[in-house]
Here is the input.
Amino acid sequence: MARVIIAGCGYVGCALAERLIARGHEVWGIRRTIAQLPGGIRGIAADLAQPLRPDALPAAPEYLVFTAGASGHTESAYRQAYIGGLRNLLDAVDRSRLKRVLFTSSTAVYAQDDGEWVDEDSPTAPVQFAGRIMLESESLVAACGIPSVALRLGGIYGPGRTRLIDSVREGTARIDEDAPRYLNLNHRDDCAGALEHLMFLDGPQPLYLGSDPNPEDRAVILRWIADRLGVPHPPGDPAAMSRGGNKRCSSRRLVESGYTFQWPSFREGYGNLIGTSP
Ligand SMILES: NC(=O)c1ccc[n+]([C@@H]2O[C@H](COP(=O)([O-])OP(=O)(O)OC[C@H]3O[C@@H](n4cnc5c(N)ncnc54)[C@H](OP(=O)(O)O)[C@@H]3O)[C@@H](O)[C@H]2O)c1
Here is the structure.
């Protein structure tokens, strides 16, 4: 059974940890507030923004997974989390048995804005700091000297993370009627499932897109949610833009590597959360 460190053991990290523990793996979770960790995860209370003492980490881990998030949507918070935190971790970890490093990146690395499909070979020229810093972190991981995999995630939703559903229910959602604006979504279970798959996959590629295989126009999603909830469709507002550009992310490489999405589109994922079938 493998020894795994999950650094930034939050929404996705805990879901991954619970899957791994259920299969008998030994999992350490790093975060600042370990009281929030579910049972079975060996908590390490540490601030990744500070240099880590090697003896604060378990000896001889085989897998290192970085799922830490930034504490705010500012350039300095991103830099601290995704560059500083990652460096501190890579400097401190015992590499003696380390087989693979996994990093949760983001679809924010793409600047494409015309609804076109993108994949792992598409150009990345992010205009926003979030995408630029994520690309820098991907490079850091790729150059760390241990085989690595970066998984670019889209907008994460799932139990307890129901912002879109809540905004439709509360009547605060607005729709940009003018043109399709695609959302690339990831159910928490598939973030964790894909990470687990990539941890143990033979001969993985260094990079995968991980959002579900069916990106959809935000307006279609919001109206669908409204219908499921039995509330009026959100009103139109040309200023209603979603952050993150307008592209359709292809997860074909991940699927062809053998991963099967549990929640392949918003219909299954949000349908389950709302409590109706898709
Ligand atoms: N959310 C999205 O829609 C989205 C989209 C694309 C990619 N991603 C990426 O996917 C990953 C997982 O996302 P998530 O939603 O699971 O994130 P999350 O719930 O915010 O979890 C991040 C964890 O990192 C810990 N953390 C933050 N700063 C830390 C520090 N300085 N030292 C130690 N631990 C720290 C936090 O715990 P403490 O506060 O207790 O330290 C938290 O548990 C992240 O890397 C995120 O950037 C997310």
In short: The two ends are 37 Å apart (CA to CA). The first helix runs from residue 11 to 22. Helices lie at 11-22, 75-92, 129-142, 163-170, 188-200, 218-229, 252-256, 266-274.
